[in-house]
Amino acid sequence: MTATTPTTAAQEFALRRHSPLQRVQHVLHAHPAISPFLVLVISFVVFATLNPRFASPNSLSLVLQQVAVIGALAVGQTLIILTAGIDLSVGAITILAMMLGAKIAVGQGLPGLLAIGLAVVVGAAAGALNGGLVTRLKLPPFIVTLGTLSVFTAVGLLYSEGRSVQGTDLPAVLSWTGETFPVGRFRITVGVIMVLLLYLAVGFALAKTAWGRHVYAVGDDKEAARLAGIRVDRVLLSVYLVAGAIYGLTAWILIGRAGAASPNAITDANLESITAVVIGGTSLFGGRGAVLGTLLGALIVGFFRSGLSLAGVDDQYRVLAVGVLVILAVAVDQWIRKVRS
Amino acid sequence: MTATTTQTPAGRPGSADSGQRMPVLSARGLVKTFGKVVGLDGVDLNLYPGEVLAVIGDNGAGKSTLIKCLTGALTPDAGELFLEGRPVQFKRPQDARDAGIETVYQTLAVAPALDIASNLFLGREKRRRGVLGSVFRMLDQKGMRRDAEQALAELGIGTLQNVAQAVETLSGGQRQAVAVARAAAFGSKVIVLDEPTAALGVKESNQVLRMIEELRTRGLPVILISHNMPHVFEVADRIHIQRLGRCAGVVTPASHTMPEAVAIMTGATTLEETPGRQAG
Description:
Chain A: GO terms for molecular function: transmembrane transporter activity. Chain A: One of its GO terms (cellular component) is plasma membrane. Chain A: The chain crosses the membrane at residues 33-50, 62-82, 88-106, 113-133, 139-159, 188-207, 235-255, 276-304, 316-336. Chain A: InterPro entries: ABC_transp_permease. The complex is a heterodimer of chains A (341) and B (280). Chain A has 341 residues and is mainly alpha-helical. Chain A has a domain at 58-266. Chain A has helices at residues 9-14, 20-30, 34-50, 57-82, 90-107, 112-136, 141-160, 172-175, 190-208, 210-220, 222-227, 232-258, 269-279, 291-310, 315-337, and strands at 165-166, 180-183, 186-189, 260-261. In chain A, the strands form two sheets. Chain A has a two-stranded antiparallel ribbon. In chain A, a hairpin with a 2-residue loop joins strand 2 and strand 3. Chain B is of the alpha/beta class and 280 residues long. Chain B has a domain at 21-111 and 188-266: 3-Layer(aba) Sandwich (Rossmann fold). In chain B, 31% of the residues lie in helices and 22% in strands. Chain B contains nine helices and ten strands. In chain B, the strands form two sheets. In chain B, strands 6-7-8-3-9-10 form a six-stranded mixed β-sheet, sandwiched between helices. Chain B has a four-stranded antiparallel β-sheet with strand order 2-1-4-5, with helices on one face. The longest helix of chain B has 16 residues, at 202-217. Chain B is globular, with a radius of gyration of 19 Å. The relative contact order of chain B is 0.18. The interface between A and B is medium-sized, with 29 and 33 residues.
């Protein structure tokens, strides 16, 4: 405290001692992934204590497989939430892309890889539609995606006539994402590996490219980004398009996981993907967060599901616990936003 | 237009020849209306090399409108702009920026959650050399941080040691310094500062005024919009007084006192009635 002699009240204030709580606030502000990481570690310890089977390679492998689909969708959701948007049409786009790809593969005999490509293109187009409505018509993302949620869901159901396509009817490559292989004592699916690669790729793009900087800047302060010379609309459109392409790719992982293409799958994807993003410490107000946090958030939800069911607790307690976590996460985000030097 | 606007500025010693030199940026007969509201009613403005030109005026006098027309944020209804003698037209802020006119907005236009270096290079990021940059679009973070440190040091801002610090953790003056440093680093011809000291304390204001002087020393002309007369009289070479959408006159700190400038600005007197020491 005596290293420098303050000459103004402001300097004196700057040199004030920080309380332990303020220190925590500062650390969390610099490294927002710490809180979800701590929650993940604590929940792991608690659930492993309640039922040692929770920590078995078998059970953990299952958690990973369960988390893969929502985890992949949450990557796209993270991108959109970083721009201060929200995507309620996540699940609807995934189903639409999946049913289109699957039905054309079976009906028209489209080769498997082309069907996957088609699903990605459909997803990207649907995302671009969302992005176009947000940027051209200047509609709030919540309203746009609430509308397209219904539109895409209806189109998906109409096109598939509400019927599933069995995995056995589909080209083998579509179910490839469900293939398991051993990693030590764990059983990992191709889908899980793909999700991890997806996190790496998007994490790199966000942290290491100009595009990533612009995504953060647009979410942080749209007007400031515009004045700094960033083409805000173009960035927003690209974010929705990339997110849509990720949903299309996730359709492939979903077919592998479910063993079929069903129009009634992942009905809760919207809320579950938003939950993973928020628990992972990405701010709903935009400009703050990272996909690493989302990965942790998705794993936390997976841990709660598996851990509480292994502890013999009613599944409703998981729902309750996740709800509490979401509110806590947003409260922590609000708190660390207030940090000042 | 009234005769006052065509009056040649008297100028300080050292810039006495500014009337003869070619202006870096010059506006002729700018008109901008918003429906029935007249923002600019035929305004001329000249900015000469290496000078600080202050623009003062009451609220609604057209200061902001004038600046926005000069920096591409608004397109004037009529009138011409010349940059280094060549006619130019700015349809959006990026056009003015590409032409070498950098603006520091009152809102600063910084992204709070990004660090200082990222903010300095926002929208103009540097990429890594080779495949990492061209194929993987990877940012040259080290290079940008190094350049950011240099840019800040050049402006005499020693207080910002850590350019990897998020801008939201900075004080108002430090944020202003970041915004000015960004403009100075990229503004090749003109720097426009909109109310740079409005939100700052005395010490931080002085820091910003030193930065403005540093820019002038480098030969970069500065347009300074400010309400703060002491600040204006401290750093400005010439003062463009805007009143009711017109230029009520151009004075210098040598020719007019602060109360005289304020009197012209508020309409209590005119430049003809108060010609000043040298012009008279």
